[in-house]
Amino acid sequence: MAAGSVKAVRLVVPAYFHPAVAPHDWAALAALAGRVRLVAFTNDMAHWFGPDWPGRFPELTGFDQVVEAARLGVLKPDPEAFRLAAAEIGEAPERCLFVDDLAVNLDGAAAVGMQTLLFEVRDPAGSIASLLARLGLDLDPPHGPGRVFSVR
């Protein structure tokens, strides 16, 4: 996959709430912000944590959008959940890379044409490296020209 060809990246929320994910791995995920679109797609967090659940998870501030399958009317791993999620974020499924720690969910995403990547919670650093490689990105964001000051 060429860099920039995936416009929407879905990162599964439960995988990243796993205690195995170290703070430096969160930093690596934060490096994706602004370089690709990050969308958290969960089944039904409101059922477990209440309607105000997004405010209880500061990790979500790094995502561009949060989509709950329960609000769409069908849950993962049903392929229809992924089709509806892509429509909800305004993307064709083929332009999405679905990242999850459950293979059954990857199957549902692939059935509608999404690209997929298994996130191994036992090896978060390796999974993040695989994600960055798949996107054609490195850990450090590109450096622009920065500020230019003129002296008179």
Q: What do you see in this structure?
A:
This protein has 7 helices and 5 strands; from the N terminus they run βααβαβααβαβα. It is of the alpha/beta class. A 5-stranded parallel β-sheet has the order 3-2-1-4-5, with helices on both faces. Strand 2 (37-42), helix 3 and strand 3 (65-68) form a beta-alpha-beta unit. It starts with 7 loop residues before the first strand and ends in a 17-residue tail after the last helix.
C-alpha Rg (nearest Å): 16 Å
Mean pLDDT: 78
Tell me the number of strands.
5
Q: Outline the low-pLDDT stretches.
A: 1-5, 10-16, 144-152
Question: Layout of SSEs?
Answer:
Layout: E1 8-11, H1 13-16, H2 23-30, E2 37-42, H3 45-49, E3 65-68, H4 69-72, H5 79-89, E4 96-100, H6 103-111, E5 115-118, H7 124-135
Parallel strand pairs: 1-2, 1-4, 2-3, 4-5
Concise account of the structure shown:
The chain is of the alpha/beta class and 152 residues long. The protein contains seven helices and five strands. It has helices spanning 13-16, 23-30, 45-49, 69-72, 79-89, 103-111, 124-135; strands at 8-11, 37-42, 65-68, 96-100, 115-118.
Structural features:
7 helices; disordered C terminus; alpha/beta
